[in-house]
Amino acid sequence: MKSFISRIPRTPALLALLALAIYLPGFWWGAPHATAPDRTHVWAIDAMLPLGPLSEVHNIIDPKPDRSLSYPLMHFFTLAGVYAPYLAYLKLTGQLGSITGVYPFGLIDPAAALYTLSLIAKMVCVLFAVGIVLAAFYAAEALWDRHTAVLAAICAMVSYPMFFYSRAGNIDVPALFYAAAAMAVFARCITTGLTPWRALWLGVFVGFAVGTRDAVYSLFVAMPIVLLAVHRPTIDSHNQSTAGRLSWAFWKAPFAGLLGAFVAYGSGSGLFIEPHRYFAHIAFLKQNAQNYASGKIQMIHTFPFTLEGHLGLARLVTHYMIDAMTLPGLLLAGFGVAWAIRRRSIASTLVLPTLTYLALTLFWSGRVAELRYIMPAVLPLALFEARALTVFWESPKPLIRTACVMLAVGVIGLNILRGADLTYLMIYDSRYTASDWLDEHTQPGNAVAIFGPQAVQPFFKYGVVTTQVDPFIGLAPGTIRDDDESTRVIINTWQREKPRYIVIMPDYTSAPGLEHSGTCPPQVYQRLLDGSLGYRQSAHFKTPNLFAWLKRPMPTFIKRDPIITVNPSVRIFTLIGDDAMLKKCSVTTPNRSLGYTRYRSDGADYGRNMYTAQHRLRSARRIHPAGQCDRHHRHLAPQIHGIIAAAARNYKL
């Protein structure tokens, strides 16, 4: 054991432990409390957890018409494999029955099981983030020296978006890990030579990266040109004539790299496993690009192919790069690139992935920018940022060395403070406090009205019924509702149905500074605040920043319409009326395992409502036999009996 530990490289091991200590706190942020079929998704936008990987694997066996086609299958395969031991444990312990594709999926306690699956997937994402740090270390070590490598690892580690996306659970960090590993191998190839084994690993990492996220392909388009330009085959001492550029000795390494990329991409993307789904995914990407350009998807700001559009996109990309690296960090990276070019160093070729990615993915095909889209471009720049600091430190002038130390402490320290502030808000997200309040005050059968997607809402206990006030239609035009007709329909619905609670919070349809969803008309929000709709604000939750003085960019879905994805303002409104009578007619929380294992998803509303309605009816009759609750009972009776009858027909009970 001691000999094994002694063989572990000390510096990379310490960097890995430091990265794990930074990324691990709060990695559970947003893991779902799946107490109903529409509460199985994590809070993070665009993270298909925890069920996405299992759904995709199940769809390979039994394809469904409504499949998700947003991404290739590489990361889904990875998570499905990681899930397998835990699912086997559930099966062996009797917590997983006959597996189905609908809620509760055969799980005895879906809330606990899906929460654990989310943590497993998020932990995988954290480990990928640690791998990015190590890849930056090895790339800089191959290009320069150990001191630069340590600084490069730290610069990559504290890049601001890494604090969020290492915990979010989406595919950005896994794709970036494979890309970073490819860059590390590429750095080794251009400095010490291209061998068949190195080329094979380079191809594998490139294939896995593109098989995880298509857009990162542009990072690698210049690599083959550079490698062929600097490649010198090993000369056979017995037959030196084999060293020509037309010989097998020259081409066997490039061929190995091409073969590795082909096999890795074909397997990871699903091309070899399910070609029909792969080509449907490619068609989906083309259609999505057309929808962005035509305005059919309006929530992401696109830039036209004009001079003004180019300048606007360049400003937004630069702004995001400053968010990720800080302005001094970006300037240091620029100095490092200029220094490498001036020295005619082969290391300068590592800036090509940044340039090709920005040119082909963002400026040519995407015409969009988000903070997470900038991460592949920022990673190579972190290496040059570290090199600039090393160059300044090696200066013989004490003043420059002192300025270098201050600059390093300022850049790295600022990002650490911003990351710590974000981590604090993820751990103490306002929705956790709101969930505690709702758990204490709501009872099974209570109706809660929400705006926007259910996935980003606070948690609700089993039996609490949530309804979207206005149909949430995602990113399509018409999502923002501020017309008089919508206001009238919402108010009339509330007057008729009288939901017990209303939850108001911003989501990614919200305009800058707006504290409610874009699907909630402003008139409705104002009338809720002034109490004229028959509701009062019972609670308001928003955790203060850890460092109130610190200006910190928030991870956003779109920069032009920034929204709060972490620690949103949550307001809970309660119906004004005979609260005591409503409380008397409530019942205690049912057993979780009993409440949600009897029905299929296609009848989820029937099953849930039947369970809660039966208990409310029995409770009202038991607690108030003399008719003290007659008015409330008469109001509920037709609805309750109708639900029970419909559920009985649906399940032949």
Task: Summarize the SSE layout with pairings.
Layout: H1 2-6, H2 10-23, H3 52-61, H4 74-92, H5 110-143, H6 146-157, H7 160-168, H8 172-192, H9 196-212, H10 223-230, H11 248-268, H12 275-294, H13 307-325, H14 327-342, H15 352-366, H16 375-393, H17 398-427, H18 430-441, E1 447-450, E2 465-468, H19 484-497, E3 501-504, H20 522-530, E4 535-541, E5 570-575, H21 579-584, H22 592-595, H23 604-623, H24 630-651
Parallel strand pairs: 1-2, 1-3
Antiparallel strand pairs: 3-5, 4-5
Helix pairs in contact: 2-5, 2-6, 3-4, 4-5, 5-6, 5-7, 5-8, 6-16, 8-9, 8-16, 9-11, 13-14, 14-16, 15-16, 16-17, 23-24
Please give a structural write-up:
Helix content is 58%, strand content 4%. Residues 557-563 and 580-653 have low confidence and may be disordered. By secondary structure, the chain is mainly alpha-helical. The protein is globular and about 85 Å long. Helix 14 (327-342) packs across helix 16 (375-393) and helix 15 (352-366) runs antiparallel to helix 16.
